[in-house]
Amino acid sequence: MPEVRLDLRQPHRQLVEVELHVRARPHPQRLRLPAWTPGSYLIRDYVRTLEDLHAEAEGRRLPLERTGVAEWLLDASRIRGPVTLRYRILATELTVRTCHLSAEHGFLALAGVVLLVEGERWSPHRLELWLPPGWQGFVPLPVDGQGGWQARDFDQLIDSPVEAGPHPEHAFEVQGVPHRWVSWGGDLPRHDPSWLSDVARLCHQCCLLMGEPAPAAPHYLFVLHQPLSGYGGLEHDDGCVLLYGRQDLERPEGRRRLLQLVAHEYLHQWNVRRLRPAELTPYDYDRPTIVPTLWFAEGITSYFDQLLPVAAGLVEEQQLLDDLGADLSRYLLTPGRHVQSLRASSQEAWVKLYRQDAHSPDCQVSYYLKGAVLALVLDLRLRRHGSWLGAVLQQLWRSHGRCRRGYREADLLEAFTGHDPDLATLLPQWLDGHQDPPLHEELAGVGLRLVSEASSQWGCGFKAAATAGSLTLQRVERDGPAQRAGLLVGDELLALAGRRLRSPEELAAALRATEPDAPSMPLLFCRDGRVRETLIDLEPPPLTVWRLELDPAATSEAHQGRRRWMHLQP
Fold it and tell me: 169-267 and 462-541 share one CATH topology?
């Protein structure tokens, strides 16, 4: 049984000392460090943080041959006893999928820490932590009675996030299942006495959504990181890691947004972790795996994470409409939705979604965002046909999730068409097409409408920000006035129609002063140290926001349907 010992006793160095004890084999063994962690579909090349790997046995070093960027060949065929692998991991990056060690805490995403030893993937692994005085470790694994933890195999080990520090731990139960809440950067349950009871209600509501009497996990660990700013979450089989900035929590909508993040990651213990795409069964830790159904794995979860707090009685109906309206507005103002299909967004996650740049809004759409929009359309449509989206999710859980049988897109299509035969044709069109699903029509069925608002100034087709006393282009819209005028991201704006530009406020004033029938406007800008001039043809004020509102002409039947929908009632 491989044994992993992690030494965090010098946190100021931000280095994790790793010892991996393995048994010698009569043939050379390959060692590999995963390139990514499940739930975050980007090759992260964790090997960039690994230092000074060497192998020891019987008082001497053994040869290690590097056969790949993150792969080595260990020859211990002449060794009878155990072999010890030693190396260090640089822990300086605070996200939910990387490693961070400081004098205040330690967090380890074990996919970036533990080597996979050939022949040992499905063997039990033991984990032990060496910590500074006063610290304790928080790990969603069974304790082994010897001061450590034991995983049934390598997959369960690296699926278990490690948090360590002098943190308070809060225990509560959900339907008899033990849960723990651990925070770094603030003790939320102490400052918000109703927090744990609200989280328990929210977790119970997730169980109800899935048609289950209790959570899927036998025990569950919440880890919350609260730096000054930041946002993120990563799901695991028996826990999750949340990152939520203290500044965000202090905003009026902060607590509600955090509840939605909790709902999202908690629901993932069913949808994604156990009800898993077949392409991820088992995981290939070395290379990208194309998953065309990420729209279901993440989009469906993103859709329900806003409804679950309402159904649990923790969020008001109007607050849901505000939040949902903001997401729908963001979607409708994303031009990339007409370029990239939802299926393509899922398939290209590895190279696009997690690698955003100034041009991304024009050529792609998030499978989280459009997946949630499609989930909304599907839910409202199914309700008109006497079913609802929760029934489809429960059916797939029973057929594929409980037994951890991976599903493919054909399985999803079969499940949906069992509730609405027309979806056999419509759903593939919505997945492959570049047009919006019938969002406005389905919202009207529950007494809602989307109302647009236009800007108060002429459209210039770019976004600019003040940097070091100058106004620099951060985005140039595809086929917009700025692109037609030859402007590029990074250009420094100097003057518009003779008016000096140094800030967004001065730009807004210059645009407001433009006459409706004005000809092309002269624009002075600087690129690569050279001052240039162009003419820009402004457009009528563009749409800047969509708002979700109650339709005053809606029928009483539509109002009743809306209340059932908002509270997750079939």
Answer: no
Residues 394-438 pLDDT 10s? 999 999 999 999 999 999 999 999 999 999 999 999 999 999 999
DSSP strand pairing (220-225 vs 239-244) = parallel
* CB-neighbour burial class of residue 488 (10 A; exposed 0-12, middle 13-18, buried 19+): middle
Residues shown for the chain:
570
Q: What share of the chain is helix, strand, coil (3-state, %, to 5)?
A: 30, 30, 40
Say how far apart CA 393 and CA 388 lie, in whole Å. 9
Position 65 scores a pLDDT of: 96
| Spatial contact of 154 and 120, defined as CB atoms under 8 Å apart | yes
- Name the nearest CA neighbour of 261 among 238, 237, 241: 241
Domain topology for 278-449: Neutral Protease; domain 2 (1.10.390)
Q: What is the CATH number of domain 3-165?
A: 2.60.40.3650
**5-39 residue pLDDT tens:** 999 999 999 999 999 999 988 889 999 999 999 99
Residue 516: the pLDDT is: 65
Q: How far apart are CA 418 and CA 80, in angstroms?
A: 59
> Residues with Cβ < 8 Å from 449, sequence gap 6 or more?
440, 443, 548, 549, 550, 551
Q: Are 385 and 445 in contact (CB under 8 A)?
A: no
Could you give the count of Cα atoms lying within 13 Å of 78 in the half-sphere of its Cβ?
A: 6
Note the pLDDT of residue 467.
Answer: 87
> Domain 462-541 maps to which CATH number in 3.40.109.10, 1.10.1040.10, 3.40.449.10, 2.30.42.10?
2.30.42.10
- Supply φ then ψ for residue 252, to 5 degrees: -55, -35
CA–CA dist 334, 339 (Å, integer)? 10
DSSP label at 434?
S
Q: Scan for tokens 């905003």, then name that residue.
A: 251
Helix (H) or strand (E) holding 411: helix 409-417
CATH class of 169-267: mainly alpha
Domain boundaries, the chain: 3-165, 169-267, 278-449, 462-541
- Average pLDDT value for residue range 261-269: 98
64 neighbors 149 (Cβ within 8 angstroms):
no
